[in-house]
Amino acid sequence: MPKALVELEGVPLVRRAVDALVDGGVEALVVTIPAGFELEFNDALGGVAAPVRCVRGGASRQESVACGLSALQAPDDAVVLVHDAARALVPPSVVRSVSDAVAGGAASAIPVVPVVDSIRRVDDDTSVVVNRARLRAVQTPQGARLGPLRDAHAAVANEGVEVTDDATVCEFAGMHVTLVAGHRDALKITEPTDLILASAILQSRKET
Questions:
Q1: For the whole model, what pTM was predicted?
Q2: Range of 102's domain?
Q3: In the predicted model, what is the mean pLDDT of residues 123-146?
Q4: Count: domains in the chain
Q5: Are 90 and 17 in contact (CB under 8 A)?
Q6: Burial of 151 (0-12, 13-18, 19+ CB in 10 A)
Q7: Domain with 162 in it: what CATH number?
Q8: Element (H, E) at 126
Q9: 149 closest CA partner among 90, 102, 112, 111
Q10: What average pLDDT does the chain have?
């Protein structure tokens, strides 16, 4: 099963992620999906309070984002956010902060949080402590204008450059990346223990 369809408290991650984007002001969505799961994704996304279109993704995250951008029917100056379904609990306030930064003139914008773990860089058979005070962990959604973001993805594809997020794509194309405050709730759900933490976050939200 694709991770996006894994359920958190009875709701697929992709549905929670899409609802968070809509609550943050997103007006239309394109969801890239793996082949053979069209019915499952359509069921998961039924009744979303904004137009949603599912399109087939690529072999990598980078290719899937490019497919999604190609499917968007919007002007080149539209503000576009690229989000990972694994960050299903992103607060709507973070979504708005990213989109507001781009709408306000930022070439691209990403949410970040301070690194709290001690970090060591491994070099062959030795390791060195890295000063975490200047480090930030990157989250999604990541935003830019549609036209420049499409061009940036085309540039990395033409050069054969592999990247792990859209901030790197933008930087490759010479675009400045603006940082906005992320949130610990927007953890990336990767392992079973992450689902336990995410469930606790949901329970905490119900109690407040």
A1: 0.93
A2: 3-207
A3: 94
A4: 1
A5: yes
A6: middle
A7: 3.90.550.10
A8: strand 126-130
A9: 102
A10: 96
